[in-house]
Amino acid sequence: xxxxxxxxxxxxxxxxxxxxxxxxxxxxxxxxxxxxxxxxxxxxxxxxxxxxxxxxxxxxxxxxxxxxxxxxxxxxxxxxxxxxxxxxxxxxxxxxxxxxxxxxxxxxxxxxxxxxxxxxxxxxxxxxxxxxxxxxxxxxxxxxxxxxxxxxxxxxxxxxxxxxxxxxxxxxxxxxxxxxxxxxxxxxxxxxxxxxxxxxxxxxxxxxxxxxxxxxxxxxxxxxxxxxxxxxxxxxxxxxxxxxxxxxxxxxxxxxxxxxxxxxxxxxxxxxxxxxx
Length: 277
Ligand code: 13P
Description:
single chain, about 280 residues, alpha/beta, TIM Barrel, binds 1,3-dihydroxyacetonephosphate
């Protein structure tokens, strides 16, 4: 309740995030924004943010074309502050070129580059120290789901990387989570809205009960074969606060449709509860 005796409901923003992975040239990026901006110019939105993570070298270009309507960030950062780590990119350098956020723990980094939960924990610490927002990704493989281990695996990923990594308030305000089942990434096989909602609700409960965080307002995004055709049903779920999109974020037409869907969601969510206004 505020000073005037009116109940104030904090609402989680809706996030649409494009993860461009190792794609795009400068020319393609310019063409993307020319089309995208044209397509979304008439759409008004108050409660939704759009972020894009291009390759490191394209961050300044995307920033110049997208800011202030959208935010730009990175797909990864070093686990160390600075020093002799040839080929790595520091969180400090990202902040220095106006990156707003960094994706940490993407399953491609975990699987291909063998990044384990303790290393990811260090990355989270260094990103927070450099005032970058973080999208922390978690998710199970197909085998783990088929073995009935999905909840346990995701719980472990959260516990090891997040438990005590920073103050509660920092985690609550600076970190967004992205549930990305590995079997849904780049496969065209999206989790059903029910499967995603079940995991998102579990994540929110685990954050609250095990990590003692106020998770009601912590954004939890879904990622894995999100398209203009399936985003609406996903965003209708009470614990899904946005989408982390790979393939469809590379096409200006599709990304504009996703933008329209994210902007159009009528009822904001608050920690799993619908607010009827
Ligand atoms: P796709 O949308 O191509 O399945 O990729 C999802 C993803 O990995 C986003 O981080």
